Amino acid sequence: MNPTPSTPWRSLAVEWLLVIGVAVFAAQRYTPFDATLVLGGFESEWNTSFAYHAVTGVRTQGRIPLWQPLLERGEPALESLQMSTLNPFSLFPSLIFGAEIGVRYSIITHIVIAGLGGWAIGWVLGFATPARLMLAILMLAKGNMPSVAAMGFFQLATTQAYLPWVIAGVIAVARFRYHRTPVVLLAVALTLLYLGGSIYYMLPALMFVGMLGLA
């Protein structure tokens, strides 16, 4: 599965490193290793409560409790559509660095994922390096993703990162019909989007799949 066989894999790795570097630079407001810096917005505590609940459970009980008792009358910690506990890119940074810092590092991770998703769209279309990098930068630099995160809407920000991967997966399925990788890519992207803690973008994602599939 290589639409541009003339491009060495080392060159592709350099492109990825460039995209990651630009993404981290663009998200530098979230990088300070300071637990006192938190997201703004009056709903940020609720939207990021899954991370604090999981980290507290792992530290005190050695596991992630299945029930979140601190929100109103309580709710499931895994099955709730507003919780991102089952999304590894949302949860693992908090388990590693603590929820106070990990939540911000998760946003950085998703900005990187969004940039690489733009790159992936260009790659499956067979674009050259400049076009791939332009798509990557346009995807990670769009203002609504970090601005929504800054307002405390964690799930609405991070789930946007999987939309370009959904588009790349649909295009790859059409272009490489005898390969399994595009099908796996599309399935993984939709699954991570669904497990991101907000189903808000599932509808446009499925619309992408339907319209691009018909096209």
Structural class designation: mainly alpha
Radius of gyration: 18 Å
Number of β-strand runs: 2
Number of helices, where a helix is a run of at least 4 consecutive DSSP H or I residues: 11
Short characterization:
The chain is mostly helical and 215 residues long. It has helices at residues 9-26, 44-47, 49-61, 88-97, 99-124, 129-141, 144-150, 154-158, 163-175, 181-194, 202-214; strands spanning 67-68, 75-76. A hairpin with a 6-residue loop joins strand 1 and strand 2.
Describe the structure.
The protein has 215 residues and is mainly alpha-helical. The chain has helices at 9-26, 44-47, 49-61, 88-97, 99-124, 129-141, 144-150, 154-158, 163-175, 181-194, 202-214, and strands at 67-68, 75-76. A two-stranded antiparallel sheet has the order 1-2. Strand 1 and strand 2 (75-76) form a beta hairpin. Helix 1 packs across helix 5 (99-124) and helix 9 runs antiparallel to helix 10. The longest helix is centred in the middle third of the chain and has 26 residues, at 99-124. The radius of gyration is 18 Å and the shape is globular. It starts with 8 loop residues before the first helix and ends with a helix.
